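Dear Dr. H.,

I hope your travels went smoothly. While you were away I took the liberty of generating a structure for the chain from your last submission, since the lab meeting agenda had it listed for discussion. I wanted you to have the full record in hand beforehand rather than looking at slides cold. The sequence, exactly as received, is reproduced here:
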Amino acid sequence: MKQTLKYFLSALIVMIGSCGEEDPLDSAWAKFEDGLYEDAYTEFSAQVPKPGAFVGLGWTTLKMPGDSLAASDRFFGQAVTVATSDTLADAYAGWAIVAWAIGDHQSCVQRANVLIRHKPSYVFGHDRRVTSHDIKCHAAFSLFHLGAYQASSDLAQNLDPAFTGSTDPATLLDELESLFDLFD
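The corresponding predicted structure, in token form, is as follows:
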């Protein structure tokens, strides 16, 4: 009985002592938030294959100077394949933005729809400017580029109830540009 109690207390002490341990991804995200993208990239890379590491690599390469969109697209794709409920929204948000940036408008709309269904009031915790409104704005622009003016107009109205809606390309583009300025 004493031996069992001793093992139980030892296990309890180990569990209590490990509760305060910091997730290694926290340091990488802190570097990301400080704009130290190369350092963040190094730390995220060391944590692969954790789902959060792929998400961090995706966002980091998206922010890094140079032609890193292909790498970002690849990392977000990997993140989605191993995503947990904690990382799925961040992966799809970044993946939608990358698709928009490379002109893959169909993928942008699809990925934005996944995000909005999964987390309608999304806010990216490491850059609070990236929200569901921002993602919807990217999707509305993509719909416009796909020639889906009614769907684009409907989404613009969702973002700006004062907009009366229009399928006229010039009017719709003006509204989308004002929304983009508002949410970017």
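Two observations you may find useful: Residues 2-18 form the longest helix (17 residues). Confidence is low (pLDDT under 50) at residues 1-18.

With kind regards,
E. W.
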